[in-house]
Each structure stands twice: as structure tokens, then as C-alpha cells.
Design goal:
about 375 residues; alpha+beta; four-stranded mixed sheet; 8 helices
Length: about 375
């Protein structure tokens, strides 16, 4: 709860508006309802755990011997966390009165519910006694550093205001209260004062905004706490899984880097064995360059060697009397390709035979096609022998 809008007092099955919204709305349109509970009590606690559910269960065990078969609702609020200790106070209310109040104010819509004296905590600076009077009884509370430590309701027919105040101050003697640290408010006469002080109290002691004697609010707090634990647990597992995957990726990267370094070292060793010592930057590229240099060496057949091979093969009388010509010659360091025309297949075959005789390599006959007007078109592929 951050801001207070409309303020109501509920008692004797009646709802009274004692203060408007003053331009602001409580919880985006909610309301603050002050109730003079008759069976409410306050229990301070100091536990090594801060879970709302765990605190409720621990206090319920303590109260089981007192409440008997009577079902009670426990609304704890942690005010301090020190050295893994969680201290605060819990409002303990029988379910019967809690349900009766919620049913009585259900027409207001969603509301936050405070015990009536909580509104005046700022009047005593968070340390002192507060007494609130209505037609039937006296609702009183003690506060220490803004934390409620005592609440009770007494019938006005049984005790006077002075008697109740004296009892409260005697009870609070262990907290070194001064008699001036007390305030008495008559709800029927000081409604506007109550509403104004409720806003001052929330501003001065924001932790009191965590109290609301509504079962829906308590259930919501428990659900949010459970979801928070579930999300926190999932986040931990997710973080752990992320660390595992990150570690696996790092280890895998190291292994792959070591493999790459090993391959490079072996490649450099092979290059050195093959081409001699020297500076090695890229073994594969440098080896290709060395092989290219060897291919371009004087031992490679030249174009002149190819022409001489054709002349030697052409003049052989075994080619027969048919006309044959070479129209295209494609030369490379591996060999040459001859494309031409002939009148007869026998002339092409004789030419192929002569090329094989005069060349240590291979001679392959490619396609032979009939051309318009008569004659044949042929192709021969000549490959040099390895030297």
C-alpha cells in the first residue's frame, strides 16, 4: 500500500466514510477500512526464516494449544532482517470475525483493512499507546518503532478510558514509555482526524502498509511467494545449465584449437620434409606454389613440341589418300586437343595411330560427326606422358 484514498470505519454492521481521497486513490481505486476488532491479538516473532507460509505455520503451532478447535487466521509482516534472522509482528484473528467483517464491507469492493488504532501510530511517533473509542468499546494498541506489539478491545461497560490507558502504560513500561506517548481518539467526533493521521502513518511507517486483514490479500501474498520461489529455483537451474553449456563450449573450443594446432604442426613438418626448411606460413598454399613451379619447368612439353608431333604424324604414308585437316588446336601443359575435318574415318584412325606412335602419352578419339555437304568432323585428345 503506497497511498490512501477514501477512509471508512466499520462497526456495528455500519460503514461510515470519515475521509475522502484528497486527490489520490488508494491502490488505484481501493479503500482503507478501519475496524475495531474484538478478538484480534498481536504476536511478535523472531525466526531464522522469512517465508510468510513458514511463519504462519510456526505461529499456528504456538497458538494451537490456546485456540483449541477455533480456527484462526495469521497475518505476519517481517519488519527487520538481521544476521539471517527475520523479526516482525503478526496479527492473529479468528476466522469467524474475519469473515464477518469481510462480508460486511463487501459492498465497498476491494479494500485494505486495518485495526482501528493503526491509523494513529504517527500521532505517537511510532512509540506509544493509542486508544480509539466508539459507542461500545475501546480499541487500543501499543507501538514500538512503528511496529505493533499489542492490541486488545475492551467493553466500555467494564473499563473506563483512564483504566485502560493506565493498564497500557503499565504494560508498556518495559519499553520506557512516557505517559505523554499516548493518544485517545473518539471515532464519532474525530473522524477527519483519523483519516488524516492514517495517511501520515503510512508515510511515516510504510511497513504498516503491508498489513491487511483480508484473506484475499493473504492468499495473494502466499501465491506470489510460491511463484517467486518457483521462478527463483528455475532461474538457478537455468543459470546452472547455462554455466554447464558455457563450460562445455569453452572446453570444446580448447580441444578444437589444440587439434588445429596439431594439424598445422604436422602440415608444416610434411612441407619441410618435401620442400626443405624455410619459413612456413601456409603449408597448403606454399605447396601448391611449389608444385606450380615444377609444372612450369623446362621438362614440360611446349607448343613447338606439339606442332612437331603433328608434323611427324601427318607425313606418314599410312594415313591413306583421304583428305584430312586440322582446323583447331588447343594447347595446355597437360596436352592438346585437335579438331578438324576428314573425308574418311580411316584417315582419322590412321592419324590417331601415328600420334600414339610418336607420343609417349595417350591419344583418345572423341566424337566423329557427319557434316552437311559430306565429310566428317572429328576431335582428338592428346595427353603428354609423365616425365
Amino acid at each position: 500500500m503506497k497511498e490512501i484514498g477514501e477512509v471508512y470505519v466499520y462497526g456495528r454492521d455500519r460503514i461510515s466514510n470519515i475521509g475522502g481521497s484528497s486527490g489520490s486513490r488508494f491502490r488505484k481505486g481501493g479503500r482503507l477500512v478501519l475496524v475495531p476488532y474484538r478478538t484480534l491479538s498481536v504476536r511478535t516473532f523472531d525466526f531464522p526464516f522469512g517465508s510468510v507460509s513458514a511463519i504462519r505455520e510456526a505461529l499456528k503451532i504456538q497458538y494451537s494449544s490456546i485456540s483449541g478447535d477455533r480456527e484462526v487466521e495469521i497475518f505476519p509482516v517481517v519488519h527487520r532482517r538481521e544476521d539471517r534472522r527475520f523479526s516482525g509482528s503478526a496479527l492473529i484473528l479468528p476466522s469467524e470475525e474475519r469473515a464477518s467483517v469481510e462480508e460486511g464491507i463487501s459492498g465497498l469492493g476491494r479494500s485494505t483493512i486495518w485495526p482501528l488504532p493503526f491509523a494513529m501510530a504517527a500521532e505517537v511517533g511510532g512509540n506509544g499507546a493509542v486508544l480509539c473509542l466508539d459507542e461500545e468499546g475501546i480499541s487500543s494498541a501499543l507501538f514500538v518503532d512503528g511496529v505493533p506489539v499489542l492490541y486488545r478491545w475492551q467493553s466500555r461497560s467494564r473499563r473506563s478510558v483512564d483504566q485502560e490507558l493506565r493498564w497500557l502504560l503499565d504494560y508498556g513500561g518495559k519499553f520506557d514509555f512516557d505517559p505523554s506517548d499516548s493518544v485517545v481518539v473518539d471515532v464519532s467526533e474525530d473522524g477527519e482526524r483519523l483519516a488524516a493521521k492514517a495517511r501520515e502513518t503510512l508515510s511515516a511507517f510504510p511497513s504498516l502498509g503491508s498489513y491487511s486483514l483480508s484473506r484475499k490479500v493473504l492468499d495473494s501474498a502466499i501465491v506470489l511467494e510460491t511463484l517467486g520461489k518457483a521462478v527463483g529455483g528455475f532461474s538457478c537451474w537455468f543459470l546452472l545449465a547455462g554455466c554447464i553449456f558455457l563450460g562445455a563450449g569453452f572446453i570444446g573450443g580448447v580441444v578444437e584449437r589444440e587439434k588445429a594446432d596439431t594439424i598445422r604442426s604436422r602440415a608444416e613438418a610434411v612441407y619441410t620434409d618435401a620442400f626443405g626448411s624455410g619459413k612456413v606460413r601456409d603449408p597448403l598454399s606454399q605447396a601448391r606454389g611449389k608444385l606450380a613451379e615444377l609444372t612450369d619447368s623446362p621438362d614440360t612439353r611446349s607448343l613447338e613440341d606439339g606442332l612437331r608431333l603433328i608434323v611427324r604424324s601427318w607425313t606418314d604414308p599410312e594415313m591413306g589418300g583421304g583428305r584430312i585437316s586440322v582446323d583447331t588446336l588447343r594447347y595446355s601443359s597437360d596436352g592438346m586437343e585437335l579438331i578438324g575435318t576428314a573425308e574418311e574415318v580411316s584417315s582419322v584412325q590412321a592419324f590417331q595411330k601415328n600420334l600414339k606412335i610418336n607420343n609417349d602419352g595417350t591419344v583418345k578419339l572423341g566424337d566423329i560427326q557427319q557434316v552437311p555437304g559430306g565429310g566428317l568432323r572429328y576431335s582428338l585428345e592428346v595427353r603428354w606422358s609423365s616425365l
